[in-house]
């Protein structure tokens, strides 16, 4: 299962209701931050989440997406955490993090692994038994990445079928889950007869980019898409500002095939998302879209 909390849904400026960008993602006991804007650690506290972060994935080093990194390192430092914090980001990330560490007087040694990424094509960053994380470059005014987190498909036991055949649970279930036939009371149980494949969920996080089709192969087929919609439809210079308006974000969402889409990174020029939602409904009907879409508030939570 993937659990998400929207810690910040604003853009360049925080507002009274919206914090700088960050999404808290929990998967298989691992805690990640997708971006880490100013005030992220306070939002984590308000959301009742653990501040013990394993990975921070920075899309780019504009301040609204990264000013919270120093605070997160400080908190882990004061907690005297010995865990290794991985910080992924575009080229230049190593220098950016080292400059942050040099600028502050931390109490203890900081155990941080800096991982700069240049991904002209989709690049695999993490791949274990449970999930993978990948990234790709996107077109912004500075070096910028989009990220994707994908659960692996898993083999699960058909519990009801076992129960109907009076087969009691035991250690042999592990072998069935691993795709092996087993013997039970002298009878051969074929794993294909007693298991099924559960398709893993996937989520893409795409923010701060121009409207270009190059992002489509990366987001194609994800279950959930978190994408920026910085401006309303009447803002015609989104391309010049290296951002998306709601119409452009809707088109990418439709072509991605995602089942659920969350629009974030709302410009501070809008007091609320009413205009965005009106525009979204218009283009939704025009494009004959079939997905669910949302404009999340800060601290909203979802589970995949």
From TrEMBL:
Cofactor field: Zn(2+)
Cofactor note: Binds 2 Zn(2+) ions.
Any one GO molecular function term: zinc ion binding
Active site: 64
Cross-referenced SUPFAM superfamilies: Metallo-hydrolase/oxidoreductase (SSF56281)
Residues annotated as binding Zn(2+) 1: 60, 62, 140, 208
Domain of life where this protein originates: Archaea
Keywords from the UniProt entry: Endonuclease, Hydrolase, Metal-binding, Nuclease, tRNA processing, Zinc
Binding residue positions for Zn(2+) 2: 64-65, 208, 265
Residues annotated as domain Metallo-beta-lactamase: 198-265
Reaction it catalyzes: Endonucleolytic cleavage of RNA, removing extra 3' nucleotides from tRNA precursor, generating 3' termini of tRNAs. A 3'-hydroxy group is left at the tRNA terminus and a 5'-phosphoryl group is left at the trailer molecule
EC identifiers of the protein: 3.1.26.11
HAMAP family: RNase_Z_BN
Assembly and oligomerization: Homodimer.
Chain's role: Zinc phosphodiesterase, which displays some tRNA 3'-processing endonuclease activity. Probably involved in tRNA maturation, by removing a 3'-trailer from precursor tRNA.
Entry's family note: Belongs to the RNase Z family.
The protein, known as: Ribonuclease Z
């Amino acid at each position: 299962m993937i659990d998400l909390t929207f810690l910040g849904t604003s853009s360049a400026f925080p507002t009274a209701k919206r914090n700088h960008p960050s999404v808290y993602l929990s998967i298989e006991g691992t805690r990640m931050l997708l971006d880490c804007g100013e005030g992220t650690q306070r939002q984590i506290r308000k959301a009742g989440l653990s501040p013990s972060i394993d990975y921070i994935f920075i899309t780019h080093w504009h301040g609204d997406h990264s000013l919270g990194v120093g605070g997160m390192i400080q908190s882990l430092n004061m907690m005297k955490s010995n865990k290794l914090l991985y910080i992924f980001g575009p080229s230049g990330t190593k220098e950016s993090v080292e400059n942050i560490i040099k600028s502050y007087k931390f109490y203890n040694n900081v155990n941080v692994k800096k991982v700069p990424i240049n991904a002209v094509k989709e690049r695999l960053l993490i791949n274990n038994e449970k999930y993978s994380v990948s990234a790709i470059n996107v077109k912004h005014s500075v070096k910028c990445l989009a990220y994707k987190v994908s659960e692996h498909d898993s083999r699960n036991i058909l519990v009801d079928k076992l129960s109907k055949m009076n087969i009691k649970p035991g250690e042999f279930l592990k072998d069935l889950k691993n795709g092996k036939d087993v013997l039970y009371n002298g009878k051969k149980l074929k794993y294909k007869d007693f298991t099924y494949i559960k398709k893993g969920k996937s989520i893409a996080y795409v923010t701060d980019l121009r409207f270009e089709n190059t992002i489509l192969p990366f987001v194609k087929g994800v279950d959930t898409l978190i994408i920026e919609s910085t401006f309303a439809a009447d803002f015609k210079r989104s391309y010049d500002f290296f951002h998306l308006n709601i119409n452009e974000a809707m088109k990418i969402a439709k072509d991605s095939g995602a089942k659920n889409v969350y629009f974030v990174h709302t410009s501070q020029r809008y007091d609320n998302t009413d205009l965005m939602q009106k525009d979204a409904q218009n283009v939704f009907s025009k494009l004959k879209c079939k997905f669910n879409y949302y404009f999340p508030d800060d601290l909203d939570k979802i589970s995949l």
